[in-house]
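<tokenise_the_fold>
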Amino acid sequence: NNAPITEEAGMGTRTPLVSILIPNYNHSRYLDRCIQSALAQTWPNTEILLLDNQSADASLEAASRYAPQGVRVNRNVANILNRSYRVLSEELANGEFLLLMGADDAIEPTFVEKAVRIMQDHPQVGYVHVERDFMDEQGNTIELDPFFNCSFVAPGRSVMPIYMVTTIAHPAQGLVRRSALERIEGYQREVDHMNAHKSLWFYLSSVSDYAYIREKLCRIRVSANNQTALTRQNFQHPVLCHMIINEF
């Protein structure tokens, strides 16, 4: 039932607003690359929102330098962790589509354009994943093998089992249709960092179709101190994995 994505796809003429959402906590040293990659998008209608979780470093100063270019900088009164995406998507963003970035990640210039075109051609698609590479603390690329062997559109329920056994996409790899996010009552999963996005993709798959672009349009930061690495070291993580699989 999977439909391949062809070169002719993406002929829509509308330019709906895309909200690029960046929660941040003490990632000042990465913010320039992250925000610049968001500003460099070829899609002509975007807004960039950064929500700081009471960072103790120079994050606010780093982000505020981009305010003249339209980046909206907000700050929480406390570190609310994964709930930042909920505040960003429900209280601050205006876009028809949402991109949930990490403050230490970066995206390629054509990411948003290619993902939106697929959404326009396939209105039943609720979220699109692109391929990614990792990058280390210094920004050096760590090449990864693609997860699937071609680009495609598929019924969401056909990919739901994948999220029970593996993590195939970080938040910054996905563009989400707001209406699909609203159908699952938003980004509300109170689970650890790694399982939060696994849960998001799982529940989106239950209400919409899925699209995959086999092109590396995203760079995910891996380091000894970022949230993904710290979660892997947390002794609670295996327990939370078990709990979320039971929920699925």
